[in-house]
Amino acid sequence: MFIYFNKPTFLPFFSPQSDRLLIKGGRIINDDHSFYADIYLEDGLIKQIGENLIVPGGVKTIEANGRMVIPGGIDVNTYLQKPYQGMTAVDDFYQGTKAALAGGTTMIIDHVFPEPGSSLLTSFEKWHEAADTKSCCDYSLHVDITSWYDGIREELEILVQDKVMCFPYSAVFPSLYYLQLYEAFTFLKSLGAVILVHAENGDLIAQEQKRILEMGITGPEGHALSRPEELEAEAVFRAITIASRINCPVYITKVMSKSAADIIALARKKGPLVFGEPITASLGTDGTHYWSKNWAKAAAFVTSPPLSPDPTTPDHLNSLLACGDLQVTGSGHCPYSTAQKAIGKDNFTMIPEGVNGIEERMTVVWDKAVATGKMDESQFVAVTSTNAAKIFNLYPRKGRIAVGSDADVVIWDPDKVKTITAKSHKSAIEYNIFEGMECHGAPLVVISQGKIVFEDGNLHVNKGMGRFIPRKPFPEYLYQRIKIRNKVGGLQGVSRGMYDGPVYEIPATPKYATPAPSTKSSPAKNQPPPIRNLHQSNFSLSGAQIDDNNPRRTGHRIVAPPGGRSNITSLG
Amino acid sequence: TANRKLSPPLPSPRPRQKRGGMFCSVEDAFDNKTLDFASLGAPGPGTPGPAAPPAEPLAGCTQSDRLLIKGGKIVNDDQSFYADVYVEDGLIKQIGENLIVPGGVKTIDAYSQLVVPGGIDVHTRLRVPVLGMSSADGFYHGTRAALAGGTTMIIDHVCPDAGTSLLAAYEQWRGAADSQACCDYSLHIDIPRWHESLKEELEALVKDKGVNSFLVFMAYKDKLQCSDAQMYEIFCILRDLGAIAQVHAENGDIIDEEQKRLLELGVTGPEGHVLSRPEEVEAEAVYRAITIAKQANCPLYVTKIMSRGAADILAQAKRKGTVVYGEPITASLGADGSHYWSKNWAKAAAFVTSPPISPDPTTSDHLTSLLSCGDLQVAGSAHCTFTTAQKAVGKDNFTLIPEGTNGVEERMAIIWEKCVVSGKMDENDFVAVTSTNAAKIFNCYPRKGRVAVGADADLVLWNPKATKIISAKTHNLNVEYNIFEGTECHGVPTVVISQGKVVVEDGNLCVTQGSGRFIPRKTFPDFVYKRIKARNRLAEVHGVPRGLYDGPVHDVLASAKAVAPAPASRIAPCAGKAQAPPVRNLHQSGFSLSGSQADDHIARRTAQKIMAPPGGRSNITSLS
């Protein structure tokens, strides 16, 4: 079974930009199983998989020699254009996606971060344009909601349905309170969007920042001190509670601490659809560097939620990632140069937040999780690519090596040892937070859209060759279950006879009457003696009800029987 | 009276130890329990006004001031032993065998019975105003029922009305309770509608009025609810005052939305109450309250633990070292939340309380287990009853049903039945959760909560062999429904002694309206605050002394925040590429690491422990 279009080919086969590629002798790893087969790529798609493929002549052949061939990574969390006080991160879409490709990531999902005062739509357009002209790999966009205002519903509808089919993102910033969260979640669910939450308790952080600045602590350690991990865990817990009440899926970005991860793991066991995304930084390093004597180094680690100063955190998060309690890895890549970070040299709250990680993501996960035996290669593919594609509705176009999928393929060398250092990384920043880390496992060849973009340590990319990948609402991976739970979870009252007993008369203006002790104690005592036999009274239990003629009654499952409610809770 | 005061207890009535009772092995066990009340600053032995006429003088009711309880097994939270107890002037004067007592003493035969400290019900609302109604059981009926059930002290909640100051509300409650209460009482104060000026009132209450616990609400949106920032502020103030922060933990915002949704769906009956307040909403609030309290380093007491989720969260937090206490109530330990779906509206409405009684039938079993293992510490009743007519105010709208269930009378018996009879706890644990722990947390220990020489003579003779069936027909309350109707309890109080007087004997109540005294409570209870104080000392954080950053600083646009972001102007500066090439060798730059700092001359540096070293912070977190 193969599809072969006999198209004339003019490309010289030594060109790295060849449209036709044959990867021979590789071991294909998908998230479910792995097998030996050759892959034939053409027109940016995977055309054939199998042995002894019949391919046209003049095809460039890559000998994989038994190495692993995996779907290109998907980095679900980047901020390549995040504005901060009029500046943007030093890695823009060009620099950032170059680094991504060098690390084996062939698609990014970037966050559109509207500045106060600009609408979601205009911001989206701006990001779209910037990425189209600069990006070297395929990309898609999340939209951050930093405030919930009147006209936002229409904008969201346009964003999701008509225009780009993209999934908005909601952040718990201090300005979004519960009620707005409840409202926002409800609305986004009705659109079929994926709700992402940046979970930190803004109220308490503000208080803590004040306190710590008052104590005279102005350095980057203040950032970690003012954001203890309990605050992250609390916000995660709250977001999950609200989402589970509304019965909508929720996705926690940047899981940085053990407690937050544990909350997610616990919640998943009880049924709510919760997904957690640790990032390269939380998987690969810890927050002890906030106490570094070198200000510039300490500031390079500033991101929020902060890296946990607990050095056992990366190990714990990798374990949860391996067992499936956390599902996706991002990078939260948003690097600022030291000069930019130095805006906050006298006040840690002014330090622009963001760390690097787009290039190191795949390698760090391999080194920390696969090389240590926590997860196998298939799970590696799942957490770096497949799960993200499923959650964000890109599957199986992305995230799988299968006939018909995009030709985003990485040949992975598990034995290659590489030392991460700022001297050789592709990012434009001076500090790499993983500086000096020796990592096992690195990409040998990276193929994006059917073209070799990275080989032997050399990048061959074109600015602007990345395409915008629109995503449809209601991803099945999330919403199938939600839809069923919606049906099952309907509430119904108890049909009972009208209460016809005595009713206490409330004083006309109870709220403003100052309670005089004498009047209050008397009514209880002077009342007629309580009627004792009410529970044997003659309430009509015949079953004839006002809404008997309502046909839908029979169709309803009784989902709230006595004693049964808790089961429903645990399911929905 | 003068005569009584002059007759001192016999000089050091050292009990003669007799070998035999297996609990009697501790030498000097009784002497250690002697208390010096002068140092505790508690008021002297109560003189409950001899003129006060007994409200309902019953046959067989004796008001003797001197009592000898013979042959009982004394049960404290740490040990049990066989001994006689001699009570005089409202105090326990002697404990031991073959006591030498004056003649004419009434003797109570306690053979084969347990002598336990009278119960302390830490949570009642006997005077709560809801929509201008006050609850059906006032202080008189409420405390009477308490005594009938073996509870000899209550701590009632003062809930100020809109427009009433905390102090004024406190005085109202004092007035009502002083004239009506039949047993000793103390008061918690609820803080609705927080504003800055309440701070002085809190101080006055703590310093002059003997109140050391305050409740904030996380539910009742737009009425009583506090925001997170307010809670943090209140907790900080309470910590400095040495008081205990209590929370009513439910997420009011979610409840508000759910209530609207349910009413729209046409659910108006009491089942709507429980559907609109699912247990996650309780658990979420408990989690949040614990987080905030931990940040403020304030001890937290969560009232009314009604669900598994909330209890589990609390247990986990304790495991991480947070100073937090949880109080399940009689209803959550013994009642069944499936009755919200009862076809009988009046019955269903009787169960309405919030957080609601969980419809999960395994909840009560789980909570009693946690109470037994110490994850939960105190059992209250949250007694706040309304008659069916009062509940019927909400007959067409469940949100209007006044909230509250009974439980003050049944509390001890239910806990005995569910925990001790089932083998989950022993009699000592029973005493701990019904009395001693409450006394410790709320700082009236060892005056209350212990059978010891010098303690108040609040005693209960508990008969573990007797059986009683709880029923609205026989209870001492003003309500038509008892939510524990039909529960059979193996273990009942046979004699209850309050302030040295027998108030219950052979099922007959003999109480005096207004005989209850207000028990002032001091701040900084050791049981709670010892740890908090130590942590306060440890919690200081220190910055890292480092050289001044002298590298390049990115120019921030002068008024970046004020300028309406014009798209064009924004893209231009983002040309991070146009910038000077980043300096790569900063991490090898010449920052001064010599250690000479601006604050070198401050002496305290050497004495300070570095509490926030790299990698060490998490340990501190897990300890505090």
Describe the structure.
- Chain B: Residues 114-503 form the Amidohydrolase-related domain.
- Chain B: InterPro entries: Amidohydro-rel, Hydantoinase/dihydroPyrase, Metal-dep_hydrolase_composite, Metal_Hydrolase, Metallo-dep_Hydrolases_sf.
- The complex is a heterodimer of chains A (572) and B (624).
- The longest helix of chain A is centred in the middle third of the chain and has 18 residues, at 229-246.
- With 572 residues, chain A is α/β, with parallel strands linked by helices.
- In chain A, strands 1, 2, 3, 4, 5, 15, 16, 17 and 18 form a 9-stranded mixed β-sheet that branches. A 7-stranded parallel β-sheet of chain A has the order 6-9-10-11-12-13-14.
- Chain A contains 18 helices and 18 strands.
- Chain A has helices at 93-102, 120-134, 152-163, 178-191, 202-214, 221-226, 229-246, 258-270, 280-284, 295-300, 313-323, 338-341, 361-370, 377-391, 476-488, 517-526, 552-555, 565-571, and strands spanning 20-29, 34-42, 45-50, 60-63, 68-71, 73-78, 83-84, 87-88, 105-112, 138-145, 167-171, 195-198, 250-255, 274-278, 409-419, 438-448, 451-455, 458-459.
- In chain A, helix 4 (178-191) packs across helix 7 (229-246).
- Helices cover 33% and strands 19% of the residues of chain A.
- The two termini of chain A are 43 Å apart.
- The radius of gyration of chain B is 28 Å and the shape is globular.
- In chain B, helix 5 (198-208) runs parallel beside helix 6 (228-241), helix 6 packs across helix 9 and helix 9 runs parallel beside helix 10.
- In chain B, the strands form 4 sheets. Chain B has a 7-stranded mixed β-sheet.
- In chain B, strand 12, helix 5 and strand 13 form a beta-alpha-beta unit.
- With 624 residues, chain B is α/β, with parallel strands linked by helices.
- Chain B has helices at 2-6, 37-40, 139-148, 166-180, 198-208, 228-241, 252-264, 271-276, 279-296, 308-319, 330-334, 345-350, 363-373, 388-391, 411-420, 427-441, 526-538, 567-571, 604-607, 617-623; strands spanning 66-70, 73-75, 80-82, 84-88, 91-96, 106-109, 114-117, 119-124, 129-130, 133-134, 151-158, 184-191, 213-217, 244-248, 300-305, 324-328, 459-469, 488-498, 501-505, 508-509.
- Chain B has 20 helices and 20 strands.
- The chains are: A alpha/beta (572), B alpha/beta (624).
- At the A-B interface, strand 8, helix 2, helix 4, helix 5 and helix 6 of A face strand 10, helix 4, helix 6, helix 7 and helix 8 of B.
